[in-house]
Amino acid sequence: MKTILAYTFLLLSVLQVSAQEKREIFFADVTIYVEAGKYYLTGSKGGNDGPQGFAFLESRDLKTWIVPAKLKDSLGMILTKGDHTFGTKGFWAPQIFRDKGTYYMTYTADEQTVLAESKSLLGPYRQKEIGPIDGSEKNIDSYIFKDTDGKYYLYCVRFDKGNYLYAAEFDMQAGKIKPETLKRCFNQTEPWESTPNFKSGPIMEGPTVIKLKNKYYLFYSANHFQNIDYAIGYAVADSPYGPWVKSKNNPIIQRSIVGENGSGHGDLFEGLDKQLYYVYHIHNSPDKVGPRRTRIVPVVKQWNAQAGVYTFSVKGNEVIVPMTTASQKLD
């Protein structure tokens, strides 16, 4: 009975669902992993309701999402506070990737970046040795990128009277960065990165990195997340460390494009239809920030032969509002 009550509480408080109707999903700092014909969604849950950690939802079409059947006994959780994991609060910004038959999750807790692993996509994700990636100072919003030469890089945010993106080579076996390689990606330089609607220090965060035709593309969010102009842009470089050239078309996701405030901090992924998408969060309403709502938008990738780079934009009139219901099941 306690398990049933706890599971019902989780669904109502975190996903805000009912058996009678579909409801929106309230994950922030979101990511989507694609495998075996299904999409898997996780992110920051926000608040203190329900278990601390990360919950999973699955879908076949990006529109309707449910808790995977195999996770119902674990309340939908794939990583839980205290279960061989680092962190007591502030479980934010997860990323899931697979390498050499093992699934990894990098995330933020206690304002530290963390790496956990599992032999199953559905977890549980745990640590062999409990601890952060780099405890020398606070760092958040981790993203691990594997280059075509087999080297790994950690992109994350460090604090210096603001939030700045950094890159460092990452030792997967040790689960640590190589400190001598740590380098700031860039500074706040563009008007869209600092609008007056919410006063804050410089903020650039939520990195995603991809490589196409020997060019590196770093997608990031700028402005404070409480700013209605929280938005997403990208920069291009010839190496994982830069120097980075910011796109003249930035921002590519912003309230003027997708029609909702606070659009930012997500992840880029390729859909089952081979279409690129970006999953992100928005503010709860025009006058309220949280709990933040989840959104997905198709991305347009075009080759610019003259510049020798890809350009990115989104179909702002085709935003997907992912929904969940307690009654629907996947086959």
Automatic annotation (TrEMBL):
Q: Which InterPro entries match?
A: Glyco_hydro_43 (IPR006710), Glyco_hydro_beta-prop_sf (IPR023296), Glycosyl_Hydrlase_43_Enz (IPR052176)
Q: Which SUPFAM superfamilies match?
A: Arabinanase/levansucrase/invertase
Q: Which residues form the signal peptide?
A: 1-19
One GO biological-process annotation of the entry reads:
xylan catabolic process
Active site annotated at which positions? 29, 205
Keywords of this entry: Carbohydrate metabolism, Glycosidase, Hydrolase, Polysaccharide degradation, Signal, Xylan degradation
Gene Ontology molecular function terms on file: hydrolase activity, hydrolyzing O-glycosyl compounds
Q: Name one Pfam family in it.
A: Glyco_hydro_43
Q: Provide the site residues for: Important for catalytic activity, responsible for pKa modulation of the active site Glu and correct orientation of both the proton donor and substrate.
A: 141
Q: Give the family per the record.
A: Belongs to the glycosyl hydrolase 43 family.
Matches recorded under PANTHER family: ENDO-1,4-BETA-XYLANASE, PUTATIVE (AFU_ORTHOLOGUE AFUA_2G04480)-RELATED
What this protein is called in its record is Glycosyl hydrolases family 43
